[in-house]
Design brief:
Number of helices of chain A: 0
Low-confidence stretches of chain B: none
Shape of chain A: globular
Number of strands of chain B: 11
Oligomer: heterodimer
Structural class of chain B: mainly beta
Radius of gyration of chain B: 13 Å
Structural class of chain A: mainly beta
Largest interface: A-B, 25 and 24 residues
Number of helices of chain B: 0
Mean pLDDT of chain A: 94
Helix content of chain A: under 10%
Shape of chain B: globular
Order of helices and strands of chain B: EEEEEEEEEEE
Distance between the termini of chain B: 33 Å
Number of strands of chain A: 11
Order of helices and strands of chain A: EEEEEEEEEEE
Helix content of chain B: under 10%
Distance between the termini of chain A: 41 Å
Chain lengths: 111, 115
């Protein structure tokens, strides 16, 4: 089955700096790659996703890049703010009902 | 009420107890999921129901028993659990693979502690 690795497990940045979280996946048939944000004590929520026919997608301060050949994808957050502090999960799916998640990255943005 | 609702939010049980977790979605989705969230581990997919039929069972011990009576409700029946089963259990729903969006909508979770 699909295996998703996520790095780093914790990340601390100064407000205004950029943050990058990286994930790799094992199954070349995976074609959908979402990112979820989970604030403390709250439910995970989708923040951005990318499909395998696209190499990059951007939404305001967040962007995701996908390298299908290398089987890795990354989340980029620019101009970080304290409210970006949360746990971020990457995931991969082949298009069935099987969404596999990474172990999560705890991002702390220091004011 | 809209979205995905889970009850109870917190549950403490002994190893010999029988309890159930309940999930209800008001989004008109046709797929529902149970995930287990333990500290510093990936979200573990436990069960998937699509159109009320179980389509995924990821080698979950038989002490966890899911039930999906209709497309809006999902249960997780628990019996003779072990302390290592203590975790946050998250329910989610989606439109399913045939939908345009594959976004998972999560509930707030049921925090389970097994003594």
């Amino acid at each position: 089955g699909e295996n998703v690795e996520q790095h780093p497990s914790t990340l601390s940045v100064q407000e205004g700096d950029s943050a990058v979280i990286k994930c790799t996946y094992s199954d070349s048939a995976s074609n959908y790659f979402p990112w979820y944000k989970q604030e403390l004590g709250k439910r995970p929520q989708l923040i951005i996703d990318i499909r395998s026919n696209v190499g990059e997608k951007k939404d305001q301060r967040i962007a995701v890049t996908l390298n299908k050949t290398a089987k890795h994808f990354s989340l980029h957050i620019t101009e970080t703010q304290p409210e970006d502090s949360a746990v971020y999960f990457c995931a991969a799916s082949k298009g069935n009902n099987d969404m596999r998640f990474g172990a999560g990255t705890r991002l702390t943005v220091k004011p | 009420e809209t979205g995905v609702t889970q009850t109870p939010r917190h549950l403490v049980m002994g190893m010999t107890n029988k309890k159930s977790l309940k999930c209800e979605q008001h989004l008109g989705h046709n797929a529902m999921y149970w995930y287990k969230q333990s500290a510093k581990k990936p979200l573990e997919l436990m069960f998937v129901y699509s159109l009320e039929e179980r389509v995924e069972n990821n080698s979950v011990p038989s002490r966890f028993s899911p039930e999906c009576p209709n497309s809006s409700h999902l249960f997780l029946h628990l019996h003779t659990l072990q302390p290592e089963d203590s975790a946050l259990y998250l329910c989610a729903s989606s439109q399913g693979p045939s939908g345009i969006s594959r976004e998972l909508f999560f509930g707030e979770g049921s925090r389970l502690t097994v003594l």
